[in-house]
């Protein structure tokens, strides 16, 4: 059972140059969620959905992990088995920073899954609507992304980790989307502390006892120094 659960959102990848969702010029200002991120959108206009994720997949080739990803991965290696990182992000920047103990609760850009069976495959190219499932042949391959209205991944493991952790830390997330937006409140219900690293106060900032305000690249290393003191306290 991890002592610390760290939830990350688009804000941790912002300093690598990836767009967030709810900034003024963010992804949801450029695209309607109903057009690109719902099961109905996929059946109505699969080409548009694939185009949206192909663009975001291609953008991964031009970015690299930033100081926040690196600090988090290094810290997790210092406390093996004690840190679980749950990311809402679908990019691979945590992996590229060497992060261990990582769960992608909203899926991954570099993966496709079948619309009918459990088939999944790593994928970094251009996907399109007419990719028959190589396993069942009946379904089509789709982005392995949790659309709005679909169940996030790993919820059993997440629920268990939140019920037993000592600290829940949220980094770079606006607290708009449940269930992730409720993790701090849930962890506190089980007696954990809740810390926040964010550029500005998110929707659910009242759920947190400590707030490291500022850019993730600056604040995550400072927060981790504090967390080290907390974990090694007598
Ligand atoms: N450092 C720290 N925080 C930052 C930075 C930065 N450099 N840049 C932006 N932020 C903060 C913003 O202030 C905002 O609170 O990151 C947060 C990003 O919020 P969103 O754009 O809403 O992204 P996120 O919270 O990850 O969205 C959650 O919503 O659309 C769904 O599935 C999608 O996983 C996503 C989920």
TrEMBL record:
Annotated keywords: Cytoplasm, Metal-binding, NAD, Transferase, Zinc
Active site per database record: 106
Domain of life: Bacteria
GO CC entries: cytoplasm
Cofactor comment text: Binds 1 zinc ion per subunit.
Keyword Cytoplasm appears in the UniProt entry: yes
Binding site for substrate: 53, 56
Pfam families: SIR2 (PF02146)
Record-listed NAD(+) binding positions: 9-28, 88-91, 172-174, 198-200, 216
Cofactor(s) for this UniProt protein: Zn(2+)
Binding-site positions, Zn(2+): 114, 117, 133, 136
Domain Deacetylase sirtuin-type: 1-231
InterPro entries: DHS-like_NAD/FAD-binding_dom, NAD-dep_sirtuin_deacylases, Sirtuin, Sirtuin_cat_small_dom_sf, Sirtuin_class_III, Ssirtuin_cat_dom
Signal peptide (UniProt feature, chain positions): none
GO molecular function, one term: protein-succinyllysine desuccinylase activity
EC numbers, comma separated: 2.3.1.286
PROSITE patterns in the record: SIRTUIN (PS50305)
Catalytic activity: N(6)-succinyl-L-lysyl-[protein] + NAD(+) + H2O = 2''-O-succinyl-ADP-D-ribose + nicotinamide + L-lysyl-[protein]; N(6)-acetyl-L-lysyl-[protein] + NAD(+) + H2O = 2''-O-acetyl-ADP-D-ribose + nicotinamide + L-lysyl-[protein]
Keyword Amino-acid biosynthesis: no
Subcellular location: Cytoplasm
Domain remarks in the Swiss-Prot or TrEMBL record: 2 residues (Tyr-53 and Arg-56) present in a large hydrophobic pocket are probably involved in substrate specificity. They are important for desuccinylation activity, but dispensable for deacetylation activity.
Function in brief: NAD-dependent lysine deacetylase and desuccinylase that specifically removes acetyl and succinyl groups on target proteins. Modulates the activities of several proteins which are inactive in their acylated form.
Protein name (record): NAD-dependent protein deacylase
Native species: Falsigemmobacter intermedius
